[in-house]
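Appendix B. Chain record.
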Amino acid sequence: MNFSEYKFLITSDLYRISPKKTNLPTLLKALVFGESYKYIFWMRTCNYTRSHPLLKLLAYPVARLMLHRLTYKLGIWIPPGTNIGSGFYIGHFGGIIINPECVIGKNCNLSHGVTLGQANRGRNKGTPVLGDNVYIGPGAKIVGAVRIGNNVAIGANSVVTRDVPNDAVVAGNPARVISLKGSAGYVNNTDYEEPGVLVTAPAQHAPESA
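Structure tokens predicted for this chain:
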């Protein structure tokens, strides 16, 4: 990862919570008061600093220590190196566990109590792969080598063990498709531009209840 890629990732993550301003003062404010963003920032910083020999020696230990402290403070465990796309958003912290082998697309929304876990045997042996613009509700669990399509909404406390098609809304245990309305209204502020050039977001509508 080069610096431009790193800057784009932390800026796109910031844009998800502050679409009108992604400048340095806004970043500093998010690092002081935005607990979830703080975790994402240090996770991204770990990934960047450990990929460069000098930074790995000087800066990575500091970033890793910060992430380690936040892991226990916030109850979030997302190991550095986990493959996560741009515009990552954690709505509420606490009880979040992500297996490092998972693949998460861009503009993913995580809620508290979410687990993306590994299955060690059976037809679903492996870890989840998520598409873009996926919303995962509180307490949801996605286990095994399941493929979650683009623009998917996963309801609260759902247990997903099978593939989910694009634009689906799933709920229940085991999770089943209940509509094809997708994640529209749940995943907002996604109109940033690569690489790191951001535009003003349109007015967002309040999300519908699940």
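Further analysis of this model is presented in Appendix C.
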